[in-house]
Amino acid sequence: MSFNGIGQRKLLYPISDALNAYLKKHGRLARTPLSYDDLRRYDGLLPQHGADGKPTLWNTVLFRPAEQAEINEHLVQTYQLLIADGRHIDHLQVAGVDLCPYGNSQPFRVKIHNRINDNHDYFYIKRTDASRVYGLELEHLLSPNRINYQVDGVTLLEEHIIGVPGDTFIKDPSRYGGGVNAVRLCKEFVKFNERCFVRLLGDMRSYNFVVDVIHDLDQVQYRIRTIDLDQQSHEGRLRIYLPQFYKENLPYVELAQQVIGTESAAQYRNEERSLLRRRMKLAQETVDELLAVMREDTIAPPENVLQLASELAVHHQEPAFRDCTSMGALLALHLRVCLAGEGAKA
Hints:
Elements lengths: L16 H9 L10 H4 L4 E6 L5 E8 L2 H20 L7 E8 L8 E7 L5 E8 L2 H13 L6 E4 L2 E5 L4 E2 H4 L12 H17 L10 E8 L2 E8 L23 H10 L2 H21 L1 H12 L6 H15 L10 H12 L8
Helix pairs in contact: 4-9, 6-7, 6-8, 9-11, 10-11
């Protein structure tokens, strides 16, 4: 059964002093050459259309000619800060700036072009949101993926995550890398579903994650990666943290029902929990430090905390969830219960 569980745009939560201290300690703070608000002073927007001629969620940003050169210089410096610790890289130029006004963080997407090898890369400048920052840090610590980001007050810098948007990919998987290995794709979706649930990451509809196709000798592997971390431990409904229940993900669920059985799915979930357990052990001190900050922070309305506490208490048959008064406390207990051991109740 599918559902639409998120009704309205969430609030942006400020970075607390404790979270700011954590970010500083772990090298996530930086002084950016320009801020998010600097980019908001654009002169106009041009709607973008996809290859099919249909409008996209992105608009091309137009700046005043008198300001364009300075903005471009600062954007190149910002890119160097994000990917090279501020060290100068020759032959870089800005190839375009886009804005998505519909997302929670209303991101700017900057395209950087290397004139020497004709290669290009992207990075994003967004409004800072504590919930998203917790999501980024947990993704870095507990997922198979490393995340590169920097925070400067209200400005959040993020690297580009490579992959095909999940909704585009599933329409014709064979288009991306030859033959489709349906079992491996479905295995990865089950494992991704489990990762999101264990760490309470919500809103993983197909357009909020990408599929990276990896060729391994004569086989094809898949890695599903989230590109939207705004809904880290924010909503009250437990199903929001399970990608399998979104109607947008129904093609993945139906394919999994065709090619893998219940027993195999359970095995893949157990495999992912084992991997999460190992990652947790390797980063235990840092995860504990982050959760200690998160316990004292506000990243969701009180009614969401109360509802999620109640639903988790029923799901795990563990009354202690009802005593939690913050999303950080709920996540800490949820991780402990889910990763307690192979016999832990899912």
